[in-house]
């Protein structure tokens, strides 16, 4: 029994002394992601690790990258990072591109599209140089040397670049008159006005039609064309074009072909001019020698002062600085005014006949002086009277301009070339001219006179008109009459052409015309032969169609010139609506709109109408269409 007890004890001890098995060890996984993939490497990048094991992970950046931080299961900027593996770990190793500073400098005046800043390595940056006004881009210098603009660079290191700008020199071109300038560099046209130092430019003056190149002044003084100028600094060049007018042409041709067709009312309003501008008292010419037509006039109705209107910046401006005595007094308004060079200095002078209805007055002159100013003076050689008309032209072919006057003291003022005149009665220069009328007065009815080369033979002819006879015994003209000139300055009344014959005087509604107020001559139909346009005014007293009042009519007639120096009435065929129920002013026969067709117009674009026609209205206008005149106004 005892033996059994010991066996039990021994068995128990054997059982209790046997060794217990070890517990299982826990492990965790590590996974590291690289952002971006090419940014670098990590060690270790993955694996399994025992619980609570400490793992050191190191990030190694690739070239041109830098380590940034760890994110994911752990966040830290430490490198390497120590991670306790107490769970599965997922980390991200973040790398950034390396950055380099790009420094932009400026020489001169301008800007660059990019400013100084840092860029990731390998960045492509486009630089654009923008010069300020008056400057130009020259080059890039510094880390990169180039003249490309824009310029694209790769930033893979610190860079410092300078944009170089160069100041341009201004070439200022000032044109006086009408024309243009061509600029060429090495034969190539350029429109530039700013140039680099050392550039040589060829300048060519191109005058407009009827203008001429005169000179260069300023930083070039020359009468050569073209010229060259080298730009070492800013330059100013003045170019003058001139238009020279023929002040020797007859007054009729000057009025027809040269003077502008303008609106006096608008000019007066623009200048706050409180007087009327009378066409008959106005003379046109380039008084200040700038190539543009100006005009001078006498105030109406009080005749107290003369005024000169100079063309300035596309407008007529009152400027009396050229008139020595603008307060010059005359009796009353002018019946007619002409412009010519009377004293031989190639500058315009103006002569007007004084005297209104039943008023006697001197013929007076605006005469140019050597200093560029003008004097107003009376022409004492011409008899004082109330002239109805006069005209100017070189009737004796001696190179200076003479005058021919209508009634009542018809005669000639022959110029000596220096604006001194000798007076000749009409019978001293025209043979067989109304011999039974007094030598002193000449023929009654010669009111409208012109001096024109009607038949284009090189000699000026006298055209006379006015009041025409109804019977052979009347001491008046039969019709508008041309006294043919031979260049001697003398004429013969037997060598003439009458536009119509006795008994053919025009009429309207049974009333024959009274006065022929204007005669205009020109080639209307382009056949090389001059034609004639006539303006009449006639008056009906106690007109029953006008409640017994006086009615004034104007009528236009057109006569075609023939090769035998005769004329054919073409009014009904060429001109519709040729009778007007109001008086008209002087006529012009000219192409006012430069379209190649002749117009019949009044002498200004807007005219005052007396009586019931108040204010200024558009002037009458007819335009030739190749076969007849078409009414425009």
How would you characterize the overall build of this protein?
With 633 residues, this protein is mainly beta. 6% of the residues lie in helices and 46% in strands. It contains five helices and 55 strands. Strands 24, 25, 26, 27 and 28 form a five-stranded antiparallel sheet that branches. Strands 45, 46, 47, 48 and 49 form a five-stranded antiparallel sheet that branches. The protein has a four-stranded mixed sheet with strand order 3-1-7-5, with no helix packed on it. The longest helix has 15 residues, at 2-16. The chain is elongated. The model has no long low-confidence stretch (mean pLDDT 89).
Write a concise keyword list for the protein shown above:
633 residues, five-stranded antiparallel β-sheet, elongated
Question: What layout of secondary structure does this protein have?
Answer:
Blueprint: H1 2-16, E1 27-35, E2 40-43, E3 46-50, E4 53-61, E5 65-72, E6 81-85, E7 89-97, E8 99-107, E9 110-112, E10 117-120, E11 123-127, E12 129-131, E13 135-142, E14 151-155, E15 159-167, E16 169-176, E17 179-185, E18 188-190, E19 194-195, E20 199-207, E21 212-218, E22 227-231, E23 235-242, H2 251-257, H3 264-270, E24 276-277, E25 283-285, E26 294-300, E27 306-311, E28 316-318, E29 336-340, E30 349-353, E31 363-368, E32 374-378, E33 390-393, E34 402-405, E35 411-415, E36 421-425, H4 426-429, E37 430-431, E38 446-452, E39 461-466, E40 481-483, E41 491-492, E42 496-498, E43 507-508, E44 511-512, E45 515-522, E46 531-543, E47 549-561, E48 567-569, H5 571-574, E49 579-580, E50 587-590, E51 599-602, E52 606-608, E53 616-618, E54 621-624, E55 629-631
Parallel strand pairs: 1-7, 8-15, 16-23, 37-41
Antiparallel strand pairs: 1-3, 2-4, 4-6, 5-7, 8-10, 9-12, 11-14, 13-15, 16-19, 17-18, 17-20, 20-22, 21-23, 24-26, 25-26, 26-27, 27-28, 29-30, 30-31, 31-32, 33-34, 34-35, 35-36, 38-39, 39-40, 40-42, 43-44, 45-46, 46-47, 47-48, 47-49, 50-51, 51-54, 52-53, 54-55
């Amino acid at each position: 029994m005892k033996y059994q007890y010991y066996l039990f004890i021994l068995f128990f001890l054997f059982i209790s002394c046997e060794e217990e098995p070890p517990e299982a060890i826990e492990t965790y996984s590590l996974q590291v992601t690289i952002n971006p993939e090419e940014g670098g490497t990590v060690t270790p990048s993955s694996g399994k690790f025992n619980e609570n094991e400490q793992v050191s992970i190191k990030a190694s950046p690739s070239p041109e990258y830098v380590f940034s931080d760890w994110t994911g299961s752990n966040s830290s900027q430490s490198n390497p990072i120590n991670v306790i593996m107490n769970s599965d770990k997922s980390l991200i190793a973040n790398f950034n591109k390396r950055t380099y500073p790009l420094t932009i400098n400026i020489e001169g005046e301008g800007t660059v599209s990019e400013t100084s800043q840092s860029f990731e390595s390998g960045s492509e940056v486009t630089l654009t140089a923008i010069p300020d006004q008056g400057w130009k881009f020259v080059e890039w210098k510094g880390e990169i040397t180039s003249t490309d603009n824009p310029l694209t660079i790769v930033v893979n290191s610190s860079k410092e670049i300078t944009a170089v700008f160069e100041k341009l020199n201004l070439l200022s071109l000032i044109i006086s008159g009408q024309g243009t300038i061509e600029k060429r560099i090495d034969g190539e046209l350029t429109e530039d006005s700013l140039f680099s130092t050392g550039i040589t430019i060829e300048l060519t003056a191109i005058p407009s039609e009827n203008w001429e190149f005169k000179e260069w002044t300023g930083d070039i003084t020359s009468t050569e064309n073209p010229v060259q100028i080298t730009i070492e600094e800013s330059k100013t060049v003045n170019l003058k074009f001139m238009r020279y007018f023929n002040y020797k042409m007859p007054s009729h041709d000057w009025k027809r072909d040269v003077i502008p067709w303008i609106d006096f009312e608008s000019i007066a309003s623009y200048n706050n001019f409180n007087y009327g501008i009378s066409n008959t008292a106005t003379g046109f010419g380039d008084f200040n020698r700038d190539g543009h037509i100006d005009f001078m006039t006498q105030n109406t109705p009080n005749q107290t002062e003369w005024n000169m209107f100079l063309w300035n910046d596309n407008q007529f401006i009152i400027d009396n600085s050229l008139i020595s005595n603008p307060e010059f007094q005359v009796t009353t308004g002018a019946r007619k005014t002409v412009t010519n060079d009377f004293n031989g200095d190639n500058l315009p002078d103006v002569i007007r006949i004084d005297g209104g209805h039943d008023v006697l007055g001197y013929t007076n002159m605006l005469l140019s002086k050597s200093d560029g100013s003008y004097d107003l003076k009376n022409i004492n050689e011409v008899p004082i009277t109330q002239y109805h008309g006069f005209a100017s032209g070189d009737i004796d072919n001696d190179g200076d301009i003479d005058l021919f006057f209508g009634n009542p003291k018809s005669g000639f003022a022959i110029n000596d070339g220096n604006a001194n005149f000798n007076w000749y009665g009409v019978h001293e220069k025209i043979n067989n001219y109304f011999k039974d009328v007094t030598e002193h007065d000449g023929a009654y009815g010669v009111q409208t006179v012109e001096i024109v080369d009607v038949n284009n033979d090189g000699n000026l002819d006298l055209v006379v008109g006015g009041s025409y006879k109804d019977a052979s015994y009347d001491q008046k003209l039969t019709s508008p009459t041309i006294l043919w000139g031979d260049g001697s300055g003398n004429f013969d009344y037997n060598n003439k052409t009458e536009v119509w014959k006795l008994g053919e005087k025009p009429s309207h509604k049974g009333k024959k015309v009274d006065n022929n107020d204007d005669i205009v001559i020109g080639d209307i139909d382009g056949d090389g032969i001059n034609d004639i346009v006539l303006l009449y005014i006639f008056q009906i007293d106690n007109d029953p169609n006008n409640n017994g009042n006086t009615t004034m009519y104007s009528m236009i007639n057109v006569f075609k010139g023939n090769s035998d120096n005769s004329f054919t009435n073409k009014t009904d065929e060429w001109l519709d609506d040729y009778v007007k129920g109001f008086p008209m002013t002087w006529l012009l026969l000219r192409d006012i709109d430069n379209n190649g067709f002749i117009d019949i117009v009044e002498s200004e674009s807007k005219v005052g109408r007396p009586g019931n026609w108040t204010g200024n209205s558009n002037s009458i206008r007819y335009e030739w269409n190749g076969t007849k005149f078409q009414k425009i106004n």
